[in-house]
Amino acid sequence: MKLAVQVNEGPYQHQASDSAYMFTKAALEKGHEVFRVFFYHDGVNNGTRMTTPPQDDRHVVNRWVELAEKYDLDLVICVAAAQRRGIVDEGEAERNGKDGTNIADKFRISGLGQLIEAAIQCDRTVVFGD
Amino acid sequence: MKLAVQVNEGPYQHQASDSAYMFTKAALEKGHEVFRVFFYHDGVNNGTRMTTPPQDDRHVVNRWVELAEKYDLDLVICVAAAQRRGIVDEGEAERNGKDGTNIADKFRISGLGQLIEAAIQCDRTVVFGD
Amino acid sequence: MSEVKKFMYLNRRAPYGTIYAWESLEVVLIGAAFDQQVSLMFVDDGVYQLVKGSKPADIEMKNFTPTYRTLGDYGVRHMFVDKASLEARGLTQDDLIEVEWEDWETEEEVDNIVEVIDADKVVELLDESDVVFSF
Amino acid sequence: MSEVKKFMYLNRRAPYGTIYAWESLEVVLIGAAFDQQVSLMFVDDGVYQLVKGSKPADIEMKNFTPTYRTLGDYGVRHMFVDKASLEARGLTQDDLIEVEWEDWETEEEVDNIVEVIDADKVVELLDESDVVFSF
Amino acid sequence: MSDLYTINKSPFEKNSLDSALKFSKAGTAVLLYEDAVYAAVKGTAVEEQIKAAMGDKKVYALGPDLAARGIAEDRVIDGVELVDYTGFVDLVEANDKVQAWV
Amino acid sequence: MSDLYTINKSPFEKNSLDSALKFSKAGTAVLLYEDAVYAAVKGTAVEEQIKAAMGDKKVYALGPDLAARGIAEDRVIDGVELVDYTGFVDLVEANDKVQAWV
Question: Is the minimum CB–CB distance between C105 and chain E shorter than 8 Å?
Fold first, then answer.
């Protein structure tokens, strides 16, 4: 089965990102293809490398990064949502005159078309939100 | 009247930050003292300088900054909540080995004690959340 | 995959209090570039998204209700509204905006693609869809 | 201001599904350093915060229920639970953790400061408070 | 004490209004703002609940939030008082404390 | 089509469960996860609603979310099937599409 996963909430505040991660990991371990994980709304905040959670807590961002490394996962952050929330890569920094970036490795910023495309291409689209 | 204001949600996703801003502005214009605005939970995301909202939309972060400049407002971001969400100033960057900062001018990161202190000192504490 | 998929946008939230309604609409607008069959469903507080006369200037937000009126130009053929959700909120179709639709090739025109339906029809339409987006 | 204020933490949300319960608890812990009178009120889904036996290992979260048990050492004198909220959720006081309290100066001890109360008492206690925190 | 209860959630989506009213005493000031202003409208499924609350409580609604949502003033339940953000500040000042039913 | 409805909100806080059940047909698979697992517990105010739904629908609850919240398996309503994350994936595969009632 070919899956698209959508994440609508940021890390820690809501369980949505946790559930999306656990689901995605289980799907990959079962041998399914996860075509893309699309981060929308506050979900874009999952893609910042600036977090430092307490040592006895899970690291929501790094967990996604490690999963992406292991399974060559496509983690896409919506550009419009990212601009509102302040998630910036080098291209965005240049375009919007920002003095730095905060995007985590393995995440990439792209347009909403990537979500539609994933939903068209995949057998199932699964949404995690608040 | 001496006021403490608490903001529990980030910019754009929920109206909480908008309402807190409009309330705080109205209170200041009426001549009340706003002792502190404390940003907690996802509210810490109000303090990033990396946002670039659409040109025809309000700039939630800059609005807080401008209000702080005009009224010498104390905008405090909770350090524990900021670490989870990735809001970083120079001290935090150094402490946690981050390669940059994203905090907006006029915001400062401090402990939860600042919230308790504000609630003790002020005549009223007003909470804006989801 | 060559088959055209049926996309349903399920809208259950009020506008302005949260951004979900507006950012959901942004997906619909972008989606116009893709080959799919698009419908929008408004149930629960989602019906408030179509209420006319919104004036958000005093809360310093952008009025995005006019954008719904243009959806006919963005490949949206149907906008369904749950009748019971309207009634529980003291609303009727007269309170809602109208959305025109025209097929540029056949010149077929529809004055208003906003249609109030009952719960059974909501279930049937959700069921027929290939993808249901929830924001 | 030399007068000691009465702080009430109003907890209305379930744990784990959102972070509010845990981050609210962090405020209570930090608050112990200040001179105030602290009570916690659990109503609606907030009563779930005190349910014992939580095992969040399989959702990879930290189990923070044990922290509630230590609140007596952090200056919390009262933890009130709304009776009707418990009942609607099929719970009784037996399902809840117990929290001990001891006054180090007077050596006064209380075995369990978790107290189930009715709605009238909730209203009275909220009313008596100087500051009500909602997270 | 005199209390101001603030409610910002739609009564059709969340239990905030139910809970706030259940845990309020006579004389409480109730301010509906953000999506909670929908509770102030005539002819809805919660109209009777609001009217009952007005029996011993004063109910306010934030005008700018009503206008944003396209609700004309003549659709607001009689007796609900409209305030703007300055009125919100005045209510905070007029009461001893504020409780947010988020 | 066969549909999987996912519900992640507490039935006591939000209207997601009400709405999902109202807009579902016979044969729909309903997965309760996150705070929605509270709906799967015996003796609550929504037990009858879940039992009624089970008349023509299959109800599942996510075990790890139940355990996290301290709900022992013997407190789950008879007939509600417990699944883990792999079971969640299997449900997604077994049905034609997934609808999230967030």
Answer: no
Task: Name chain D contacts of F8, Cβ cutoff 8 Å.
Answer: 17
Please state the domain extents for chain A.
Answer: 2-128
Q: Does domain A2-128 have CATH number 2.60.40.640?
A: no
Q: Which of F86, F97, F98 sits opposite A30 (nearest CB)?
A: F86
Domain E3-101 part of CATH 3.30.460.10:
no
Task: Determine which of F9, F10, F12, F13 to mutate to test the interface with E (most E C-beta atoms within 10 Å).
Answer: F13
Give the residue numbers of A annotated as catalytic, written as ranges.
78
E strands present in chain B: 2-7, 33-39, 75-78, 107-110, 124-128
Per-residue model confidence as pLDDT tens digits over A21-75: 999 999 999 999 999 999 999 999 999 999 999 999 999 999 999 999 999 999 9
Give tens-digit pLDDT for A70-116. 999 999 999 999 999 999 999 999 999 999 999 999 999 999 999 99
Domain extents in chain F: 3-101
The stretches in chain D having pLDDT less than 50 are: 1
Q: CATH number of D6-134: 3.40.1260.10, 1.10.579.10, 3.40.640.10, 3.30.470.20?
A: 3.40.1260.10
Q: Quick one: how many helices (H) and strands (E) in chain A?
A: 5, 5
Of E13, E35, E64, the CB nearest to C58: E64
Given E35, E89, E102, which is nearest B27 (Cβ)?
E89
Closest approach of chain B CAs to the CA of D129, in angstroms? 12
Contact partners, residue B55, CB within 8 Å, separation at least 6: none
pLDDT for D105 equals 86
Q: Does B118 contact chain D (CB < 8 Å)?
A: no
**pLDDT attached to residue D2:** 52
Percent of chain C with pLDDT over 90: 94
Q: Strands (DSSP E) along chain C, which ranges? A: 6-11, 37-42, 76-82, 101-102, 109-110, 114-117, 131-134
Name the residue ranges covered by the structural domains of chain C: 6-134
D53 vs F8: CB contact, 8 Å cut-off?
Answer: no
